[in-house]
């Protein structure tokens, strides 16, 4: 039982990673809190500008293509370019990927390379296992450098999958720079919007554990295929 205002603050601090009741020294944050804030901010910046290691991609059998944003500065200034794939990338997909797969898995660094490095080794095998349990088949997986969620549409127009799953790094905050999202869409194509996609977010060890998320995604994909829709039209 919480008996005092101090106890209430301490209870709240134990139930959330948010910065509450951090304390002050006069009119300013304490030195310890200020240093922690600067450390967390630096981690977020590093995640945005970081790179997913080639070793991780090779370990999981993922080849790479680029989005229309050829460097990180352009990616941040021009979100529209991250939704597009240049002709060279589209040709690579045509040559290397299975056409019309049941499930197409895509990985992208997005706004957090740390999220991919921290979670992909766990969520990717769990997702494959879950697809197998639901008797679903996957196409040729690959990695999109500097991708945005909307790149699903361009890829859908080239490979024509029934369902696309995009594992992408979320925008980092001051709580964690390791959070990933999984976006799913039924037969994505040019012009499809966010309302036609479904997202499972906050995937990391402090949120939804990546192994648990991978297992959940297989069942979600099965529902999408059964109902032949995604986004706001899907009944969960």
Structure description:
The chain has helices at residues 5-15, 31-49, 54-59, 72-77, 79-82, 87-96, 113-133, 151-159, 210-227; strands spanning 24-25, 28-29, 63-66, 103-108, 142-145, 163-169, 180-186, 197-203. By secondary structure, it is of the alpha/beta class. Strands 3-5-4-6-7-8 form a 6-stranded mixed sheet, with helices on both faces. The protein has a two-stranded antiparallel ribbon with strand order 1-2. Helix 7 (113-133) packs across helix 9.
Kindly provide the radius of gyration, computed on alpha-carbon positions and rounded to a whole number of angstroms.
20 Å
Q: Pairing-aware structural class of the strands and helices?
A: alpha/beta
Main sheet: strands, sense, barrel = 6 strands, mixed
Number-wise, the strands total: 8
Write the element-wise H/E pattern from the N-terminal end onward. HEEHHEHHHEHEHEEEH
Low-confidence stretches: none
Shape: globular
Average pLDDT, to the nearest integer? 89
Straight-line distance between termini: 37 Å
């Amino acid at each position: 039982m919480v008996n005092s205002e101090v106890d209430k603050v301490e209870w709240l601090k134990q139930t959330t990673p948010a910065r509450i009741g951090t304390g002050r020294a006069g009119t300013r944050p304490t030195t310890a809190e200020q240093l922690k804030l600067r450390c967390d901010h630096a981690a977020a910046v590093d995640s945005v500008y970081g790179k997913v290691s080639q070793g991780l991609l090779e370990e999981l059998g993922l080849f790479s293509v680029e989005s229309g944003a050829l460097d990180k500065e352009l990616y941040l200034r021009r979100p529209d370019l991250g939704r597009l794939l240049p002709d060279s990338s589209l040709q690579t997909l045509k040559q290397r990927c299975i056409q019309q797969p049941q499930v197409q898995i895509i990985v992208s660094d997005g706004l957090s390379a740390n999220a991919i490095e921290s979670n992909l080794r766990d969520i990717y095998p769990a997702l494959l296992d879950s697809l197998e349990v639901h008797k679903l088949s996957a196409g040729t997986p690959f990695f999109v450098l500097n991708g945005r969620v909307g790149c699903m549409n361009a890829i859908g127009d080239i490979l024509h999958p029934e369902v696309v799953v995009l594992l992408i790094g979320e925008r980092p905050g001051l709580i964690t720079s390791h959070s990933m999202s999984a976006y799913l869409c039924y037969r994505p194509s040019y012009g499809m919007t966010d309302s036609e996609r479904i997202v499972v977010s906050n995937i990391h060890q402090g949120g939804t554990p990546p192994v648990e998320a991978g297992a959940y995604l297989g069942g979600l994909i099965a529902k999408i295929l059964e109902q032949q829709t995604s986004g706001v039209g899907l009944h969960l």
